Inverse folding.
């Protein structure tokens, strides 16, 4: 799944060209669901960087803790709220890494998944707008997850969809038909991502020190075997 995000303070041009900044990037070494994050979306034919609550909140949702922070790519059409968002409200979340956890005899070991070249990347998401009254509205979103290939298969069975920067505009553009957008929801290429164990400090979302992401072992990639984490 996608329990936490690692987001470095990078300029928009480092993930995508020609982005209009409506709100500065929210950087965090350990960003948990049900917090605000930065996202990219199409507005008036341009890509804008704005903010949304991480937890999909349709108008009928009564309990905020029930807001879904992830949506399964395989079943988006089965729920009206995601089917409608897939048609016209697609977004991207710029990140530097995603934390995942592997169960071990001594407890869960956190890993940070990054690009093998440590460049930032873009995660696919859907957003919606909730009106609390006729004058007040806020936006929320959910990441889209899919199955995984190596090197992540020893660690997790699902991971957020990574959208290549070259396909970002096609994903974001509401004019792209849902069927064409769906074709982009595939597991990341095995050579793209790697994972390394990090400090268990990250297990507590209250810990916001940047050394949460400090490697405690070597990166595992598609050409290297699993890392042993004590």
């Amino acid at each position: 799944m996608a329990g936490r995000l690692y987001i470095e303070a990078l300029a928009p041009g480092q993930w995508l060209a020609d982005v209009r900044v409506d709100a500065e990037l929210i950087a965090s070494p350990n960003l948990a669901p049900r917090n605000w994050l930065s996202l990219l979306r199409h507005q008036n034919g341009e890509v804008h960087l704005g903010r949304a609550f991480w937890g999909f909140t349709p108008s009928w949702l009564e309990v905020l803790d029930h807001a879904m922070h992830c949506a399964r790519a395989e079943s988006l059409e089965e729920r009206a709220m995601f089917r409608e968002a897939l048609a016209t409200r697609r977004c991207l979340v710029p990140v530097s890494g995603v934390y995942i956890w592997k169960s071990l005899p001594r407890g869960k070991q956190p890993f940070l998944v990054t690009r093998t070249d440590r460049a930032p990347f873009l995660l696919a998401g859907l957003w919606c707008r909730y009106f609390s009254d006729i004058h007040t509205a806020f936006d929320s979103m959910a990441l889209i997850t899919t199955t995984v290939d190596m090197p992540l298969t020893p660690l997790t069975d699902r991971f957020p969809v990574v959208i290549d920067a070259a396909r970002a505009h096609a994903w974001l553009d509401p004019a792209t038909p849902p069927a064409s957008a769906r074709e982009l929801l595939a597991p990341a290429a095995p050579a793209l991502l790697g994972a390394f164990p990090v400090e268990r400090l990250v297990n507590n979302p209250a810990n916001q020190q940047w050394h949460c992401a400090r490697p405690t072992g070597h990166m595992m990639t598609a050409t290297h075997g699993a890392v042993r984490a004590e």
Notes: The longest helix spans residues 80-88.
